[in-house]
Amino acid sequence: MALDIKTLLLMNLITSIAALITMSSLWKQHHKRYKGLSLWLLNVIFQAISIILFVLRGIIPDFFSIPLANLALQV
C-alpha cells in the first residue's frame, strides 16, 4: 500500500475529529473544575479546522485554504 499525502491528511483528519469529540466530552464533564480546559478545547477546534482546510485544498480557493489553515495552526 502506497501512502501519499492525501491519505496522510485523511488519516490526520480522522484523528483530529476523534480528538475533538474526546476533548469536547471531557470539557462538558469537567469545565467547571478545570478553568484551562476551555483553552485546550479551543486549540483542538483550531487544529481540526486547519486540517479540514488542508483537506479541502483544491476544492476551495488556495487564497482561503492555505493562509487560514496556517493561521488556525498558529493560534
Summarize the structure in words:
By secondary structure, this protein is mainly alpha-helical. About 75% of the residues lie in helices and about 0% in strands. The protein contains 3 helices and no strands. It is flat and about 45 Å long. The mean pLDDT is about 90.
Main attributes?
75 residues; 0% strand; mainly alpha; single chain
The helical percent reads over 70%
Number of alpha- plus pi-helical segments = 3
- Rg, Å, rounded: 14 Å
Number of strands: 0
Q: Given the C-alpha coordinates, what overall shape results?
A: flat
Biggest sheet descriptor: none
Low-confidence stretches: none
Classification by helices and strands: mainly alpha
In brief, what are we looking at here?
The protein has about 80 residues and is mainly alpha-helical. About 75% of the residues lie in helices and about 0% in strands.
Helix-strand layout with pairing:
Elements: H1 5-30, H2 37-55, H3 62-74
